[in-house]
Prior knowledge:
Oligomer: homodimer
Structural class of chain A: mainly alpha
Amino acid sequence: MTEGAKARDSGADGKPERISEAEYAVMEALWIRSPLTASEVCAEVCQQRDWSLATVKTLLSRLVTKQAIATEPDGRRFLYRPVLARTDYLGGESRRLVDRLFGGRAAPLFANLAEQEALTDADLAEIETLLKELRK
Amino acid sequence: MTEGAKARDSGADGKPERISEAEYAVMEALWIRSPLTASEVCAEVCQQRDWSLATVKTLLSRLVTKQAIATEPDGRRFLYRPVLARTDYLGGESRRLVDRLFGGRAAPLFANLAEQEALTDADLAEIETLLKELRK
DNA sequence: GCTTAATGTTTACAAACGTAATCGTTCCGC
DNA sequence: GCGGAACGATTACGTTTGTAAACATTAAGC
Lengths: 136, 136
């Protein structure tokens, strides 16, 4: 490409492009262990999702384009490792949900989860502990 | 269609198809007030999202197909109203997020939001109140 | 009665996504 | 040195989503 930084941003500046659900599965593998080769990633996810190696390669390429992962050469092939931190991703997605569906406030989300009976006793206990931490 | 219940489910049985982000904006309008005509929905959302009436009509059709809303004839036109309850939708999406990103446990989500400083004092207070309720 | 405005239906089209096959190169084993 | 395996890059193709225009029908005004 002759005129570098064409556009479509997601560059170092603009907010990172969203990671799709399939791409997320690949990210997970890399968050657990990295760097990995494409084959190694496939070894981690292809069984569970019933994917072919080709699919994983496509997803890796797209993630590189989105700058969610980076490559480092290792001989004739690449090793892939996350650029986007897991915590940042989770935080971003959580905020998105809270902003989009609950007016940016977390309390209604919890009320909703409670209503859905999606909160286990363990969850409640942990949250209580966290609350104490935060209010300190 | 000659052979009713063709497929593509989302029928009365299979889990409801996902509602996209644009579609959600339409649902919001209908959750706030319903039934509404297409024009009325447009009056609610077209300014904010910079949409044309045509776009709203498309989204309404798709939502009808997905059985998220239903129509009732009103003379020569339709009135639209939600079939999917707001609470159910919010609950479903919340669970999806918790399942997909946090292994189905709400506590890590909470921890994450805290880390992202996405919890206001008001949130904390409300959640505390909720917790007390739930543990009763 | 005829034009027109409103409304649902159909069709359109580009971008993103899911899923992959194919192509071109290069290294490794024989 | 050569055939195949491994790998990244390119191309492919159907579906969903975002966004809308075109079309058909009909009710309503003049």
